[in-house]
Design a protein that fits this description.
There is one protein chain. With 394 residues, this protein is mainly alpha-helical. It has 18 helices and no strands.
Length: 394
């Protein structure tokens, strides 16, 4: 009898050991898939990353890992990739799914919670729900401070400042950016990539506030440091492209158009060298380049750049993304300026349709585009169409 009991115990222990080994094996596979999603996000290969993420979720369910921290990471990586792909509702869903996993009783390590809440803040900001975004960012900062994760405190502090810039509250934004810079210098040093990012944030504030003399030296110094680093490491090409584009914007506002063109073209060249170029960012720079030509009445060059910008935007954005509407409206403005009213109407109709669907009738962008479209209809005696749209004016 004792032998039988002993054998049963041995079998139970063996089975338990085998199950634990299988769980460990499955967890390692899931973590490898999470790493692949993360790399796709870095490379801007969102479609591939989403497919890997969906396969990871199926694998986790079959492997009974639905409540593990690894699946929490899968949800988080999927949320990040949907956020950067402008799919905000999906991002919000996955961030919330990840949060549920990380506050699950068996998961004691909850250091990711701050990052998840910060991600939800990013989504709220992208959806222009600024009060909610600031509330979430402040909540994330409290968690990061408790964990002594000061780099994340600096990043999230900058996120709050970004919102104040969007609201033209520059005096509120400036001390937050400076605090983020001070924190980052203490941890990473003066010339680290994180410090450069925080300084670029401050310079972009000065650019927005038309304090060009303060912005320019920060941008130039950042560009020099990045160019020196990139001789050894090409991972920071995206930041170099951004600061180069910012210099183009600065020169454009100073009406130094020839210099602006050089910086914009340089920014595009840098992005095209990246393993997976950010087509949305290239679209933005091409649009900026078109505006430089347009301001000099170089309409043929402007039209070419606008068309290229739209081609990149259509590749990288959802059909109803407001950023795509901006591209359509901008080429519509060009055609209007060229007195090509019928062509302008076609582009304005596309822009208005997107704004109305994505942002609603009450949004200022929707109403502005609506008014411009009505004026164009009247110009070509499309009275009935103009009057029908006037019913939508607020």
């Amino acid at each position: 009898m004792k032998k039988i009991i002993y054998l049963i115990l041995v079998m139970l222990v063996s089975n338990l050991y085998a199950e634990n080994k299988q769980d460990e094996f499955n967890t390692n596979i899931l973590e490898e898939l999470n790493e692949q999603i993360r790399n796709c996000n870095i490379d801007n290969d969102y479609e591939k990353g989403i497919k890997i993420g969906e396969n990871a979720l199926v694998f986790a369910k079959k492997s009974h890992l639905e409540n593990s921290q690894s699946i929490g990471d899968t949800y988080l990586e999927l949320a990040n990739i949907h956020y950067y792909n402008h799919q905000y509702e999906l991002a919000k869903t996955y961030y919330n799914n990840s949060l549920k996993i990380y506050i699950f009783p068996s998961n004691k390590d909850n250091k990711q919670v701050g990052h998840i809440i910060n991600g939800l803040g990013n989504v709220a900001e992208a959806q222009t729900n600024y009060d909610e975004a600031i509330r979430l960012y402040k909540k994330a900062i409290n968690i990061f401070e408790k964990d002594k994760n000061m780099i994340s405190v600096a990043i999230t502090t900058s996120n709050i400042a970004d919102i104040y810039v969007l609201q033209s509250e520059y005096k509120k934004a400036e001390p937050l950016y400076k605090r983020a810079i001070d924190i980052t210098i203490k941890i990473e040093g003066q010339d680290s990539i994180e410090t450069i990012n925080r300084k670029i944030d401050l310079a972009e504030l000065y650019l927005e506030d038309k304090k060009y003399n303060k912005a320019e030296p920060i941008f130039i110094k950042a560009k020099k440091i990045l160019e020196a680093k990139i001789d050894k490491n090409n991972n920071e090409l995206g930041i170099l492209a951004l600061v180069t584009q910012d210099l183009g914007v600065l020169k454009y506002h100073q009406k130094r158009y020839d210099e602006a063109i050089v910086f914009y073209k340089n920014s595009i060249e840098i992005r095209e060298k990246m393993p997976s170029p950010n087509t949305s960012a290239i679209s933005t720079t091409l649009n900026n380049l078109a505006m430089v030509y347009q301001n000099q009445s170089l309409y043929r060059e402007a039209e070419e750049m606008h068309k290229k910008s739209i081609a990149f935007a259509e590749k990288s954005l959802e059909a109803n993304d407001p950023d795509l509407a901006i591209s359509y409206r901008n080429i519509g403005l060009l055609y209007d300026e060229m007195n090509l009213t019928e062509k302008a109407i076609v582009e304005y109709e596309k822009a208005f349709s997107i704004y109305e669907t994505a942002l609603g009738l009450d949004d200022p962008n929707t109403q502005m585009t609506l008014r411009e479209l009505i004026d164009l209809y009247y110009e070509v005696d499309k009275i009935e169409k103009a009057q029908a749209l006037e019913l939508k004016l607020r």
